[in-house]
Amino acid sequence: MQGLRRKTMLWLSFFVASTVFIVAESFLYPLWLNSENLLKIIVDQPGKYAFDIVDRLSLYVFLGGLIISGLTAISVFILLVTRSRAALTSSMLESQEWLEELYEEAPVPYLLMAPKGALELPNKAALRLFGCTADVLALLTLKDVTVKEDYEHLKNLLYRFKNKLPIHNELLRIESKNKEIRWVLLSIFPGGKVGHSSGKALVTMVDVSEQKRLESELRAQFNEVQKFAKAAEASADGVVITDTDGRITYVNSAWMELTGYTKEDTAGGERLATFRGESTPNDVLSKLHEALQTNTPFKSEEMIHKRKDGREYNAEIEMIPIIDEESGIAQFYVYTERDISKRKEIDRAKSEFVSLASHQLRTPLLSMQWYTEMMLSGDTGVLEDKQREYVEKIHTGSRNLTELVQLFLDVSKIEMGALQIQRAPFQMETVVVSVLEELQPNIEKKMLRVEKKDTLKQEITTDAKLLRVVIQNLVSNAIKYTPVQGTIAITVEESGQRMIFTIRDSGCGIPTEQQHLIFSKMFRAHNAAKAAAHGFGLGLYMTKSIIESLGGTISFTSVLDQGTTFILSLPLLADSGQ
Q1: pTM given for the model
Q2: Residue 70 contacts by C-beta under 8 Å, 6 or more apart in sequence?
Q3: Cα maximum dimension of the chain
Q4: Does residue 177 belong to any structural domain of this protein?
């Protein structure tokens, strides 16, 4: 109000002075110009002091003009100074308002802290950080919002604050109204002179909780990596890590000892395929490439790798893709491998022994079976009931033993790579019908219903005899494990230049925890013996081996006590490379 009154008086003074100057000038200036004529008039008339009067009057008029001009100039100067001060005051007020708005809207929490620790004038970011209103925060001190574990650290900071020493980016944990712990970087800038008890301080709290969380996760991941690195170095198996292009990024000591290569040999971004032998079967490599493209694990005992000196060895490898959870894309691959050359030699020798022993056992077993059949048919005379019972047991045992010997022979041929494959075109329906006719007595004995659907009109080119062994084994299993008056469904169809054979039964099913072992040698599920006592655990192992030898695949689904479905997939046309 006083400023407005002062401005009004200055403007009024300027207006009056200007008006007086203009009026005086309009009257006195002509009088001064005509003072010489007036002098002449007075001189012509009598009077001793006429000249002095006119001369002094002219001087007074001139001096009055100067005084009025000076007052006008002073008034203008005062007006300009007043306007400059008003503009400066307005600019300062605008700057103050801008600073206040900047303080209030700043993304960093700001507040003032009294010497005793009371928190005042928090901005919006500070209120969001503490999760309360300014009135509630005004009742708290810095100690009230600090977690107990950091009290000692806060005590040291407050001691420095009392001595007006600056505090920059000190890590502190605070607790918000909803009991959420936040990590902040605390900075305190004391105001006033040192030792001035009433001085307040500007406080900033930069929320770094997210950074601390990420730091904790990175530290945990680093620890996991360290654990993995230690485990990999301690592993007896060779461990190799590659990027998605197959370039080696890590090898452990066991791999270097196994292959003879050093870390320097792999430091140039060499591809893992460089260290693979040329004798690895093409079908194994195809399955590996398929696993890499689909980001699925891969395991094989048929890889052939080579050492630095050029010697090849049989390698059992397992490849595991490490998948990013968000994108579902492989980030890198972990390979483990071991030398199984000695084990392969032992298995080969065992297979040769089994094959030789089976050949030697086959002749006496066939003779035993032939003689018991003669006795049962009455060629050697009529048997008494007790004698017939014993002979039937001998005949059944010899037949089962002969079947087992034949299975051993077939498995030995597969494992030794001596399985002869003779491909020729034929109708799949003829194989299925032949198997069903052969097993018809067993089907009728259990009163099973067999549903057959064949939509495949094209011939398939493969080994008919080996495929018949597979079909016979699957149908025989379905009959064996399906209860009386159950159902067996068989489907033959074409899908993308492949023959798909599906057989579904309503049998006992396979326990989930044992399904991964179903194609293993000499394995039978624990519920299989209850459903059918007779079995050697070699049928599905041999089935899978034959199907893979023919370039096909076999898979299954099973639900306990509801049934099992096996699916065969074979190319309709023979691959010239197989």
Answers
A1: 0.44
A2: none
A3: 202
A4: yes
